[in-house]
Amino acid sequence: MLYDNLGINDQGHLTVGGLDTVRLAEKFGAPLYVLDEDRVRENCRTYVQAMAQYLPEHSMPLFAGKALCFKGLYPVLEEEGMGADVVSPGEIYTALAGGFPADKLYFHGNNKTDEDIAYALDNGVGCFIVDNHQELEALDRAAAQRGKRQRVLLRVTPGIDPHTLQAINTGRIDCQFGVPIETGQAARFVAAALTMEHLEVEGFHSHIGSQIFEAEPFCDAVDILLDFAQGLRQDLGFVARTFNLGGGFGVRYRDSDPVVDIPANIQALADHLTQGCLAKGYPLPRILLEPGRSIVADAGLTLYRVGGEKTIEGYRSYLTVNGGMTDNPRYALYQSPYTVLPANRMQEPRDFVCTIAGRCCESGDLIQENISLPHLGRDDLIAVLTTGAYNFTMASNYNRLCRPALVMVRQGKARLAVRRQTFADLVACDL
User: Fold this and answer.
1) How far apart are CA 41 and CA 195, in angstroms?
2) pLDDT recorded at residue 308
3) Of 20, 37, 135, 295, which has the highest C-beta tally within 10 A?
């Protein structure tokens, strides 16, 4: 099995968190998002404990809500000692509705509107990650109107390539996020921020991309940030107290993907940071990371009912399912790899090579190509693994399809966390 929270029971059914996926689909319907809460908690603890053990005091992981955001998740994150990164007022609202403390929220975004800024300030968001000069000025004005001093991190781009998918590479110089160091613009950005009376500059944010499996790209980012920070200390007398290094580590979508030792990577990052600071005589900054995918991706799977098989002689065979790009657009967008299993027929030979096609009126509505499964019939059940991240949050109502329910499983019990949309929901905002 790809992960140790998965299994096969005596009926030959796939289990997740010890629960039979066939029974889950019978009770809650399909398509169905299933999230193993115990796995989420385990992943949180991996980061929290490793960062507390190896990195400077007050270092902390921030869960990236863009990976998965619903009200019932935030009590889990709070209990496990996580902070949270949010990228919109909607994510802020959801976190607060889930009881998450506002002062542990870090507000991202490269185009925060005046309304966004006001909403975050009025709700006591702890820290803004400021993306550009215009936002810097708007935030200072809004904070002044409220008579408060707002904590900020300044987003800078280090100009490195972590060799990840181009669509999720955010560290290069030519990027819509942040201000580049190499061109000299970031130094001017910091100098301007330090003149803002109502902003407290704590340090820098740098995000280099997603699906990174080793510590080296993060270490490279630390080197660039340390050189940058040292120059600012000499020129401006400013000492950064915080380095936010952005996303967490990669996850396994297939057996061929590497197994990531997150504590070992964090230890390697910590050692590199310590050596760099000692060499420069620079005070150790606290480190923030923003894992999202590596907290929830492997805790989730999606269940689909099969509609039927279709073979185009001389070409290929299709297996159609009752979901698709509306609940998982990542294959259509990125050709993202997934592991697909026959949830109700796990012990049968997988000698039928097929393409999994969704139900949308789009030739690009595919979930995976060239997958080996048993010959499946109408109402058989398949499971697509590692869908806890960027599936629920990227879902849509294209073709006026209702979004699936989300079920959380923990300690042998399942509970509905997000109900399935109804047709009435589809027209609720229509006038």
Assistant:
1) 42
2) 94
3) 295
Contact in structure between 12 and 344 (CB atoms under 8 Å): yes
Tokens of 22: 């066939």
Taking each helix axis from N to C end, the angle separating 89-97 and 114-122, rounded to the nearest 10 degrees, works out to 20
Q: Give CA separation, 328 vs 195, 249, 387, in Å.
A: 45, 21, 8
d(CA 64, CA 109): 12
Token pair of 431 as six digits: 């006038």
CA–CA separation, 117 and 105 (whole Å): 13
Residues in a beta bridge with 235 = none
In sequence order, the β-bridge partners of residue 19 are 16
Tokens representing residue 239 in the block = 């000492």
**Tokens 């049968």 map to which residue?**
348
Number of H helices, E strands in the chain: 12, 21
Instruction: Tell me the two tokens of residue 9.
Output: 């029971």
Helix (H) or strand (E) holding 134: helix 133-145
User: Which residues lie below 8 Å from residue 310, measured CB to CB, with a gap of 6+?
Assistant: 317, 318, 320
Report d(CA 122, CA 118) in Å as an integer. Answer: 6
What span, in angstroms and rounded, lies between the C-alpha atoms of 66 and 139? 23
Q: What is the CA radius of gyration of the chain?
A: 23
By the 8 A CB rule, do 295 and 44 touch? yes
* 53 vs 48: CA distance, rounded Å: 9
User: Where in the sequence numbering do the catalytic residues fall?
Assistant: 361
Backbone φ/ψ region at 237: left (φ over 0), alpha (ψ -120 to 50), beta: left
CA–CA dist 224, 222 (Å, integer): 5
Q: Divide the 431 residues of the chain into consecutive groups of 10 and give the mean pLDDT of each group.
A: 96 98 98 98 98 97 98 98 98 98 97 98 98 97 98 92 45 70 94 98 92 92 96 97 94 95 97 98 97 97 97 95 97 96 98 97 96 96 98 98 98 97 97 97
Which amino acid does the sequence have at 282?
Y
- What dihedral angle (degrees, nearest 10) is formed by the CA atoms of 71, 74, 79, 82? 180
